[in-house]
Specification:
single chain, 520 residues, alpha/beta, Rossmann fold, 2 domains, binds ligand ME8
Amino acid sequence: MSDTPTFYITTAIAYPNGVPHIGHAYEMIATDTIARFQRLDGYDVRFLTGTDEHGIKMLQTARAQGLTARELADRNSERFREMAQVLGASNDDFIRTTDERHYAASQAIWKRMQDAGDIYKGGYSGWYSVRDEAYYGEDETEVRADGVRYGPQGTPVEWVEEESYFFRLSDFAERLLKHYEEHPEFIGPQERRNEVMSFVKGGLRDLSISRTTFDWGIPVPGDEKHVMYVWVDALTNYITALGYPDELSDLWRYWPANLHVIGKDIVRFHAVYWPAFLMSAGLPLPQRVFAHGFLFNRGEKMSKSVGNVIDPFAITEHYGLDPVRYFLLREVAFGQDGSYSHEAIANRINADLANGIGNLAQRSLSMIAKNLGGIVPEPGAFTPEDEAMLASTDALLEIARAEMKTQAIHAMLNAIWQVVAEADRYFAGQAPWALRKTDPARMATVLYVTAEVVRQIGILIQPVMPGSAGKLLDLLAVPEEKRGFAELGAAGRLSSGTVLPAPQGVFPRYVEPETAEKEG
Ligand code: ME8
C-alpha cells in the first residue's frame, strides 16, 4: 500500500424526485473544487456523489406522474449523472441507493446496530412531515393562520401511527457531546456546530427507523414487512461506496471520510444521526461535516411554483462552465447563503476574469511573443519590486491551504485575486513597454516575473476552473506533470528558453446576447 495520505470526500446524495437545480450544481462544484485541490496537493483522493432514491417522497412524486418509483429514479438519476459530467466533476464513483451493493451494506450496518442492542421494536405515533421524511415533537410544530400544522422546516406535518423499529438515539447524547468537544473541527461552520450542540444538549429522543406504510425502500433484515427509514439507508451510502461490509476491500482504506459536504438543511442527519449509527456499529466517525448555505435567486428562495429554479445545464451553456464555477465559489462565502443574478455573474466574468487574470496574462504573454520571439527570457538581477511580487505569489500556497482547511474557498480566491491586482499594479508601474527601447534587459526581467506570477496563479486556480487554468498553463508551456502544487513557489520557476505557443485569450468578456447579435 502506498504512503500517499488518503482524502475521502462526498457530496450529499440528491433526491432524484425532480431534475437537478442550481443548489445541487453548487454543492457539486464546491465539492469538486476541494477534491481537485487535495489531489493537486498530493493526496490520494476518493470523491463520491450519487442519488438517494428511496422513501415516500419518491413514491408520491412517481405516482403523481404515472410512473413507478424505479422509473422515476432511473430517469432522474441519469440527469444527475449528466450534471456531474457537464459541471466537470472529477468524482470517482456515482452511487445509486438502488444499487445492489447498497442493499447489502445497509442491511449489514442495521445488523451491527441491532447486535449492539441499539435497535428495538415499538409503536410510533407522531407529527410526520412527508416532505422532510421526519417525525417532529409536538413542541417543534405550530399551527399557522391557514389552520395547517407545520414542522420546523416550514413543511406541513400530519399525525401518523405505525409499528416501527427504533434506534436508541437517546443513549448517544453524552457520547456525541463528548465527541463534539474533543473534535471541535467535526462540524463546520461554527454556527452549525453551535446549533447541533444545543440540539443535542436538549436531549435526544429515540429515532423511528422503519416504515410499514409503503415498500419502496430496503427491507429490514428478518422482518420484511418493514422497510428502513430512508435516512438510515441514505447515510450508509458513504460506506457502501467503499465496499462495506467488506472491510478488506481495497477501497476501505479511504474510511473514515475526511469531509462530508452537505447543505445546511441536513446537518442534523449528518452530525447527530450518522455519527450515532457509526458509534453503534463500531465504525470510525468521519473527520468533518461541513454545511454550505443556500443559493437564492436574487435573494428569493427557489421553488418550482415561483418558476425561478435555475437549470444548471442552461446556465453553464449560457455563461460557460468555468465562469459559472468561479462565480459561485467567489461570490458566495462558502458556508453562508448567497444570491445570484445575471448582473452579478456578468460583472464577475468581466471584472475578475477578462479584465483581471485574463488581461494580465494576455498583456504579458503578447509582449513576450512580440518582443522576445515567444521565448521565456533569462531574468536579470531582481529588484526589490520583483522580489516583493514573487514573494506575494510564493506565499499563496500556504494561504490557500490554510483557507481550504476550513473550506473557505471564497477566501482562497480572494487571496489569489489580491495577487492578481498586485501584479496589475506591478506591471503598470514597471511599464515594460516603455523599457523596450531604453532597457530591453530590464523589460525581459519584468516580463519574466509577470509570466511567473501567471504560472503560479494558473496552477492555483486549476481546482476552480480546470479548463481555463489548463489553457493558461498550455500558453506557458507548463508540462502536465509540472502542474501540481509541489511546483509552486521557487521550486518550479518558469524555465528560461522555453518556447511558448502563440498567445490566445483564455477569459473572454461576457457580451449581452442582443449586443452580440447587433455587433455580429
Ligand atoms: O437532502 N442551495 O437531497 P436533496 C444550496 N437526499 N444547496 C441546496 C439547495 C439550494 N437552494 N437546495 C438543496 C437530500 N441543496 C438528501 C440527502 S445525504 C445522505 C441525503 C442541497 O436533493 C441540500 O442541502 O434535497 C443537500 O445537501 C443537497 O442539495 C441535496 O438535496
